[in-house]
Amino acid sequence: MYVLNLVFIFVIINSLRAAPVSECDVVPITQWSGSASKRNAELNKPVHLVIVQHTVTQDCYTDTDCERIANGIRAYQMKYLEYDDIGQSFLIGGNGKVYEGAGWRVGAHTKGYNNKSISISFIGDFRDKVPTPHALQSAQDFLNCAVYKNHLNMNYHLVGHQQLSATLSPGASLQNLIENWSHWLNDVSQL
């Protein structure tokens, strides 16, 4: 009986740990990849910084294609970059779905900012075009939900990856677009 109670408590704790991810219509990493994240260090919430990126991969418009690309990113980062797991916090497909990467745990997306920010990485290359309307709406909905659930500070700042690192990410077209979003921060010198 004692062992059964311990198993029951373990199941409850693990389901509660995963609850914040699914609260905002995020596809859990276990669902799209078949295995749990190996990242364990939780971010301090509410998070104050969101970093927008792109994956510089093919675009995806179907669940199958988005999951295939996300799995490819995860495999590449773990095998060739020797990361513990996928570095991006959340990925957003052209199908309008948000996929959990590192989630609300410390990821590996922006050197010097991983322990105090989340990244939202749009699947595709957005140097010369913007993500689909579905992807953009999903990003806004996710951020609003994250604020409502107190995972993200209501006065959070949003920046493009290129504002913090020597990179072209999130691509010129996407960077120009996010500069019109309400939480965008131009001067990153105080971060």
From TrEMBL:
Residues 24-165 form the Peptidoglycan recognition protein family domain. Residues 1-18 form the signal peptide. Disulfide bonds join C24-C145, C60-C66. Pfam families: Amidase_2. Gene3D superfamilies: Peptidoglycan recognition protein-like (3.40.80.10). One of its GO terms (molecular function) is zinc ion binding. The keyword NADP does not apply. Keywords: Disulfide bond, Immunity, Innate immunity, Signal. InterPro entries: Amidase/PGRP_sf, Amidase_domain, Peptidoglycan_recognition, PGRP, PGRP_domain_met/bac. It comes from the Eukaryota. The keyword Disulfide bond applies. Residues 36-171 form the N-acetylmuramoyl-L-alanine amidase domain. SUPFAM superfamilies: N-acetylmuramoyl-L-alanine amidase-like. GO terms for biological process: innate immune response; peptidoglycan catabolic process. Monomer. Belongs to the N-acetylmuramoyl-L-alanine amidase 2 family. This is Peptidoglycan-recognition protein. It comes from Euphydryas editha (Edith's checkerspot).
